[in-house]
Amino acid sequence: MSAPSLNRRGAWQSAAGARITPLTTEYGQIRCDGGKPDCEPCRVAGARCTVTRRSPPVRSSTKEQLAEAKSRIRELEALVMAQRNSPKPVALDDRLFVGYLQDPRDLDTALTMFQREITVCGVGTPGSTERQVFCTAVLQQTGSRFDVDQFVQGLPNAFGTRDPRDSEKARTQKWPPRHLVQLCIHQYAKTGLYSVHPVANVKALQALLDENTLETHNLTNHIANLACLVAFTAQVTVMHRLESAFSGADPDAYLRAVLSLVPRLIIEEHSVRSLEAFINIATYLGPLGHTKTVDSLLAVAVRIIYSLGAHRPSVVIEEEGEHLRNIFWYIYGFDKTLAIRFCRPPLFNDVDLDLRLPDGYVSSCSDDHFFMRPLSSQHVIYPSDLRMNLIKSKIHTLLYSDHGRAQPGAKRLQHIRELDEELSALKSSFPDSCWPDVFATGTTPDYTFHDLSLRGVNLHLDYYFCLGKIHGAISAYGSQSWSFLPSSAELFYQESRIILLYVSRVRHALNWHTFW
Q1: Percent of the chain with pLDDT over 90
Q2: Residues 161 and 215 in one domain
């Protein structure tokens, strides 16, 4: 064998053209001279000669490499076009959100919600002094013992077992078809639902649908355009779920779909459409007990309200300004309801807001709330009386906030009396035949409820809820008893009984998706 030689790149090469690698031994790395049977360095070292021979790589010609690159580019272009023409958005991987909302009506969620409710309603946590005081009060008032923990543990058995198909259905995610979105827009406008649920601008949604937002959505569009359409459809279909026209809809699946857009929706530039998306999701989840999620969604919505200037009446002169102001009042009521219900600081600080009521609201809202009559989108009355929401804000600030709790007992009593008077003044503005007292007895004839709208029922329940929170505040200060204000304690007990009695009379008219 001829001795190997160095090629141009400095690598050793045999006479046959094979590349020869160095041999690594305990003596270090040595070069092979290609001798047979062993090369000279190996013979001297007393080692076996192991030469690794590698064939030079086969290289494609420049022409072939260019053809391969062009073919790959055509494949990528075809993939991009297929994604753009897909009716389903491809901005996010759906697998990332599997299980994000496994079941909107899960029993465990409902039980967690219930336990959170009773904790802040004077029952307290297990083993707490507040719970002991509550059980003692029940015994004194009713003569019966009531074990809260045992009651809560027995609740799951009252609901029986669920169909496994329900859980499987709850994990699905889909995008509503165009014809269903169109039906929802038409139904929302036809029934005048905007009057009590002002969460969508029908003209704007129709324009988005006509622009094929569902079919041609891609990464260059605002995600809010798609999100508000889908969230709106989920909300309307769940409200009309018992009607034959909506029998094939799957609102929970639409909700899961729009939830997959929330990460991008949060970081996008704020707009009216993103605000509509967040508030529709929040009002969908609120009655289902997802209060922590609702709090987070409302926090984002409140920030958008501030950024768009909807907390000031001057916004009405801007494009969609009146609609924005309507959404502000809607979210304001939602926020104050959650604050007083769960004794948490409200997201809206009243000192930063202009709380002048809409023109003509006070003179016309009472009759519209209580009596069954066609709704008009031109006249917004909201889910509850705006004046009731203002009272809720005061109840939390004066009685349940950290500042209110720190006030002397005499000051708290003064606030309780003043709020009671303000609530009574609001009640006196209701039509005489619609005062809550008229409907709050077990002997009230059924026919008196016939002409009462569901909005009126909600307003009655709102009234008693606020009355209970006002007079129940006297027990919200640690171990202090009701003893120094027995009349307020008795009013609290009385209103608690009235709420249960009232609900039992109208339960056939209440729906689980009714706004609070």
Answers
A1: 33
A2: no
12-26, 181-195, 200-214, 316-330: segment of lowest average pLDDT: 12-26
Q: What strands, in cross-sheet order, belong to the sheet with 53-54?
A: 5-6, 12-13, 19-20, 53-54
Does 490 lie in the same domain as 394? yes
Tell me the residue length of the chain: 516
82 to each of 78, 217, 511, how far by Cα in Å? 6, 12, 43
- Report angle CA 463, 437, 134 to the nearest 5 degrees: 60
Residue 95 lies in a domain: no
Higher pLDDT: 367 or 346? It is 346
Name the nearest CA neighbour of 84 among 226, 221, 261, 263.
221
Q: How far apart are CA 10 and CA 15, in angstroms?
A: 15
Predicted TM-score of the model (pTM)? 0.73
Q: In the listed set 170, 196, 229, which residue is the last one of a domain according to the structure? A: 170
Distances (CA, A) of 379 to 130, 196, 331, 371: 45, 9, 18, 15
| 345 shares its domain with 439 | no
Model confidence at 12, pLDDT cuts 50, 70, 90, reads very low
Do both 184 and 313 map to the same domain?
yes
Specify whether 186 is located in the same domain as 303. yes
Instruction: Give the 3-state secondary structure of residue 25.
Output: strand
Tokens of 133: 């005081």
- What is the DSSP annotation of 259-296? HTTHHHHHHSPP-HHHHHHHHHHHHHHGGGT-HHHHHH
Backbone angles phi, psi at 23, to 5 degrees: -100, 125
Which residue, 236, 226, 241, is CA-closest to 183? 236
**Which of these, 345, 342, 347, 344, lies nearest to 301 by C-alpha position?**
347
Q: Using alpha carbons only, what angle is made at residue 515 by residues 355 and 155, rounded to the nearest 5 degrees? A: 135
Same domain? For 511 and 463 the reply is yes
Mean pLDDT of 56-66: 69
Say if 190 falls within a structural domain: yes
The span from the CA of 63 to the CA of 60, in Å, is 8
For the chain, the domain total comes to 4
Residue linked to tokens 């008009």: 376
Chain segment 205-257, per-residue pLDDT in tens: 999 999 888 876 554 568 999 999 999 999 999 888 888 889 889 998 999 89
Range of the domain at 495: 386-516
pLDDT over 60 at 101, yes or no: no
Helix (H/G/I), strand (E/B), else coil: 192: coil
Is 189 part of a structural domain of the chain?
Answer: yes
C-alpha 341/C-alpha 19 separation (Å) is: 82
Place of tokens 């209580």: 370
Same-domain check for residues 196 and 242: yes
And the tokens for 66?
Answer: 């260019």
Amino acid identity, residue 400?
A: Y
Name the phi and psi angles at 467, rounded to 5: -60, -40
**Phi, psi for 119 (deg, rounded to 5):** -65, -40
